Amino acid sequence: MARALVAALLIEEILEMEEEEEIAKSGKEKRIWVQDWRKKRPKRSHTNLLKELEISCPKDYKNFLRMDVAVYNDLLALITPLIEKQDTIMRDAISPNERLSVTLRFLATGESYESLKFPSRIATPTLSKIIIETCESIVKVLKDFISMPKNEEWKIIATEFFEMWNFPNCLGAIDGKHINIKRPPHSGAYYFNYKKTYSIVLMALVNAKYQFTMVEVGANGRVSDGGVYGSSNFAVMHEERKLKIPPPVKPPGFDKELPFVIVADDAFALHENFMKPYSHRGLTSQQLQYNYRVSQARRVVENTFGIISSRFRVLLTTINLSPEKCSKIVLAICYLHNFLSKRSSASYLRRIEENDKQFIEMAELQNTTSRNYSNNAKEIRNIFCEYFNSYGSLEN
């Protein structure tokens, strides 16, 4: 038996030497299907590191993927049917665990595909396909974690805003965030924004708990936030009265009805359902109090953008992908944010309160300009101002 094994090995070595001689004579390079260092992926990829971290250092595990073991396993179970691939004769498929974990690592760090290929032992072209496909699947499996409120759901959000931020009849805070991208080829200044970078815009509505209730991604950065909103599906639904906003009600202890509103900055037009600060010119003490309260309520959307950028640091980079692929990445982050905030809200949102003062100061520094608004919208703003300086005053 031993002699037969030795003979077989010698024959295999002779055949390999003859093949190499033929390749050398032909002047062609030997074709390598998989590089040796990547063949060791099953034993030495980052998933093995995760197993060690799960046992020895759960804190580092959470830092690595931006979620703890239990939440990650739940997400993996949800997404596996969408990203699982079959083995082939030539090679074993990359597992759902590897696909999801490398995608989350990309979102957490913003590393390039070329950099990620080393710890993951997955080729760069394969990574580029896996990460986008996994982001698409994340949105599909978590689709119920961002949904437009209706009727009683709006009232619940308004109650939470009143209890947490002392703003009555508030349905949320809205704003836009620029996501920096590399200028797409042949796009000119189409994505060039006022910050002198190239970007796409994330337009979002956020509830009192820093959770997205509406997101739209992909508008070019050249357009203002108001312009992005004006062309959004949300704006169309609002204009066509399809949002099912409840009718006006009286805030507790106040004798005048007020409509349910969304708070915004000056990029948005004043409207019966959109409240924004007064112009900063010649304000009375009452108007300053109103501006402060609007800024206090509006900071939740600024905080939410800060949270997702801190957790998923790819948002702090200039993403070197097409606008379409960038949009899929940002959308996946928004759904992951809601998933994490609802599954582990205490730990996920722990640091928010420490940053609140900073966000208030930032909001108050934003200047506003005078525009023409409907008399009804102006009157509603004046009634809110009256409320904040009477029964709704923080001193009461």
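The record above closes out task 2.4. Task 2.5 opens with a second protein, given below.
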Amino acid sequence: MLIDKLGQFGLDQFDRWAGQIRSYGELPLQIRLWNGRDYRFSASPTVTITLPGPQAVSYFRKPSLASLGEAYVEGQVDIDGPLLSVFEVAVALAGRLVSGNKLWGRLAARNAHHSRTLDSESIQYHYDVSDEFYRLWLDEQMVYSCAYFERGDETLADAQVKKLDHILTKVMLRPGEQLLDIGCGWGALILRAATQFGAHATGITLSENQYERARQRIRDAGVQDRCKVLLCDYRDVTGTYDKITSVGMFEHVGLANLAGYFAKVNSLLRDGGLVLNHGITTTDVNNGSGAYFGGSDFIDRYVFPNGELPHLALAVKEMSAAGLEVLDVESLRRHYARTLELWTDRFEANGSRIRTMVDDKHYRIWRVYLAGCAWAFANDWVSIYQLLGCRAGTAGLNPTPMSRGYMYPK
């Protein structure tokens, strides 16, 4: 446990620590100790952290998002206040003790060996919580990826439909074409492709929960003749497709496997076809994890084991090296910040029901994770891009119009 690594940190030291925090200016925080001591860092604190016992004090000796997140998840502290405000305070606490340096240090790229077994276990750990759990804070179609806010005031449900249509319009999906969706989630994109665009759509996933739910949704929609989902690894897919989409999946590929991933995509794409990769990226040009104040340590341990984020430059490089011409690059960072805000709001609104579905530890993990991701995207700690491409070569392999106007039909 982190408390063992930090060693003893008594009340006298905590007093000095509190003074050091105050020396940087006001912070909308109140800390209450088990013995009645009360530390206020502003006249009107919006966030209250309660330490129920002396063992919790050590987490604050050198606070990082990893140590503070661990303290909360493991039940060593209780936190009250708006979630986004809680994360703002946590960032400020960590930042005030790093001597003005923005980072505790970035983790080096792990280059983990992403075997089929490891990737399957990681996916199932994250996604196979329960469908009901996700349904309470996602939209009605359970689209677990960045929405698209054309105006900015759309509902979550409307913005997710716009995202699906934006992707399928970008790849110029036509009736009768064969679409492959790598990492299809609960099937929203392939269902949209089959029911609204008239395509033959195939989705793949490593999550058994998503697989079963997507199959049921296909049956309910009556489109089994042109829509299917497979429980398999992307490396095992065969065939040729007119259009390929990958939404929120390549974060699990691993930096060392990006070349093979894009090469596989290229091998599945027919001449004149289009591919769209929609994925999260680090803002670290050296492809580190972007471990701002220990945030990536927390995510790797509790939420997304073995996830690795490339910088946009590396994604474009590997896509190009695999023989795919990059035709269009679009940033959706602000869109994901808004999506996560709405997910966080829905999670909070349904907190009492969620707590009946998962244990307290998992409730706390997801609560702090969603709020932390909203902060990370809003503050450019991480980003997300849609990369549109085709097979590289002669002009005839690029089927898109000369203007990007086709992507935004009226």
